[in-house]
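Worked example 4.2. Below are the chains of a multi-component assembly; read each line carefully before continuing.
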Amino acid sequence: MLLLRLMSWISLRLGRRLSRSVLYGIAAYFFVFAPRARRHAREYLCRVLGRPATPIDRFRQIFAFASTIHDRVYLLNQRFELFQFSIDGEELVRAAQAQGGGALLIGAHLGSFEATRALGQRQAGLEIAMAMYANNARKINSALTAICPRLKLDIIELGHMPAMLEIRARLAAGSFVGMLGDRTLGGESVEQVMFLGAPASFPLGPLRAAAMLHCPVYFMAAFYLGGNRYHIVFEQIADFSTTGPGVGANAISAAVRQYVAVVERHCRLYPYNWFNFLDFWQAPPAGVPLVSGTE
Amino acid sequence: MQPAASPVTRDLEREIADLMVQALNLTVASADIDPAAPLYREGLGLDSIDILEIALVVSKRYGVEIKADSENNHQIFSSLTALADFIAERRTK
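Applying the procedure described above to all two chains together yields the following structure tokens:
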């Protein structure tokens, strides 16, 4: 934590432009020293680009990842003037907010979650409570407090009994609850959905909960476009607020597929913003070699 | 220790077990649910979303709200008997 506090202090003192030079070093380090992540990143890039991934592709992805982490320091400290933001779908969340019934915002390890949260808060006055697994929640909480001590983050711990009751209470109070929909822990119910050409497992939980609580569901992500530019997207996935009691399994499954389709479309638009450096598919891609001849 | 369940609670237990099996599409028969076993995780093996579903069903059927901040959540879901006792004390319908 001390290191993180130091890094954050240096970043804020040196300014974004100067401290970014360090990022090339960090990105280069991961480029060289993370073999397992490299293999998984290559598989993703190969699928999304439809061709073997080159070292340049891999570096761009790692550099985008390092940039979003670095920018977190500035976003948490509300230095919005350093960035250029564009938004799609802001009117959707504003309308949902006006209705007062709360909404579930489902993201992915795609782009910068912090940018969405921070900007949602500033731009639209959206209070977003983040739901995440306990271990991550604690780690992230202490990391973020190190970066920005005056920050009060609203985090709901998943994976313990009353988690969903807490989410229900937030939604009932008209709050927005953010969750990630692209990771499974094992043990929970999942749906196999075609994603970039092969089946992958996605958790049913977030959308099952949305159906039970009769709330609208939006996809939310902030894509790093390079330099100091971010593009934020809100898009409706499903609206369970008008459906009667007992939403069927088919409707939930359809919503998961819709979520995956939206994630996939944005992966193709912003291929270097995918930050799942793990084994996402069970089977290797067919037809396209993973590694180019030169690597 | 909880006192032994009264006959009224026993009937309620059975009723709640039926509701749970139906709402959660459980593969176990309601009569086979051990009234003393924990409902969450080990025991009946329910997850947090199942707990939410039970809270919603219980609110609708008995008018009893189980809230996130109920400090005794763990007590309430510690067994079918505990859940039935909780509902029996507070039910409005």
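Take a moment to check your reading of the output against the notes. Residues 7-24 of chain B form the longest helix (18 residues). The mean pLDDT of chain B is 87.
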